[in-house]
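Bench log. Compound arrived from synthesis this morning; before running ITC I wanted a structural hypothesis for how adenosine-5'-triphosphate sits in the protein. Inputs:
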Amino acid sequence: METIYLNAANLDYWKKKSTSNVMALGFFDGIHKGHQKVIRTAVNKAKERGVAVTVMSFFPHPKTVLSKGNETFDYIMPLTEKGKVLAQLGVDTFYIVEFDKSFASLSPEAYVSNYLVDFGVEHAVAGYDFSYGKFGAGHVGRMEDDSGGKLGVTKVDKVSYQGQKISSTWIRQLLSTGDMKTLQHILGRSYELACKWDGRAFHPLSQYTVPAPGSYMVTIETKNHPILTKVEVAEDQQTILPLEFDQATMTSGDRIAITWHRRVQDHIMYSYSV
Ligand SMILES: Cc1cc2nc3c(=O)[nH]c(=O)nc-3n(C[C@H](O)[C@H](O)[C@H](O)COP(=O)(O)O)c2cc1C
Ligand SMILES: Nc1ncnc2c1ncn2[C@@H]1O[C@H](COP(=O)(O)OP(=O)(O)OP(=O)(O)O)[C@@H](O)[C@H]1O
């Protein structure tokens, strides 16, 4: 899979390089089951048509740009990780548009014309609530008209879990309460984050969100093999302490994947001597 960072300076170059494709649209933080349905729909449409499948996302998140920098934003996964998951789902090209004020102020029609039609998109796929263009005024129901009939559009219906729409916002809430079990259901996989080991504790790499402080069962990649063990997330949520494994198996400075299974019931062990 090729990853292409688009901005005003290189836009024309990449337009010329593009070929016919089916494109999935959205920010896709966390790539949960709703996102997966959008992307799989695009992959299937592209296969039917014998063209490439592309994803167009943005960076940074629109909220950080449109809130005048006042709002902090917790990313669920960095772009590199997003790219890996998209590649596994069968995406050929991953476009990341630099989301700045001038891009945000494009009219819905200008966005569809300059970023979809001009990029060889013959069919676009987005979820039922995808919005685009200045003030988020464009929505998936009018995209075909915004393109002047030049592209077809598939709108993917809402994917829910226990009656609630699966969303990146919900993932952030589950991380903030440490509910890794529900998170597993809405991601369709266990939550994973990459860390560095400093000889004493793990520290998350940037653009991951660490679950709420507490104890968790996790799988850690060590030198030789993955181990199932227990860790404690400290109050600062930047320090993850191993509770029960042989620290000699770790190599300092490594990029280590931690897969989160469940929160361990907080309890105090009393011992009595009689
Ligand atoms: C060209 C373009 C312009 C946008 N302008 C605005 C805007 O002015 N205000 C806003 O709140 N969101 C704006 N957005 C963000 C969208 O409304 C939406 O949040 C974003 O495309 C992510 O969609 P998703 O959350 O469905 O993935 C814009 C998006 C695009 C693609
Ligand atoms: N539960 C869902 N069912 C179907 N489509 C979805 C679902 N969630 C997101 N999508 C679609 O996936 C794409 C990416 O959406 P987006 O990144 O806004 O996800 P989100 O989970 O809704 O995020 P947020 O919680 O920040 O609004 C969009 O086309 C959106 O419509």
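What the model suggests: The chain has two domains: 2-158, 188-263. The domain at 188-263 is CATH 2.40.30.30 (Elongation Factor Tu (Ef-tu); domain 3).
ITC booked for Thursday regardless.
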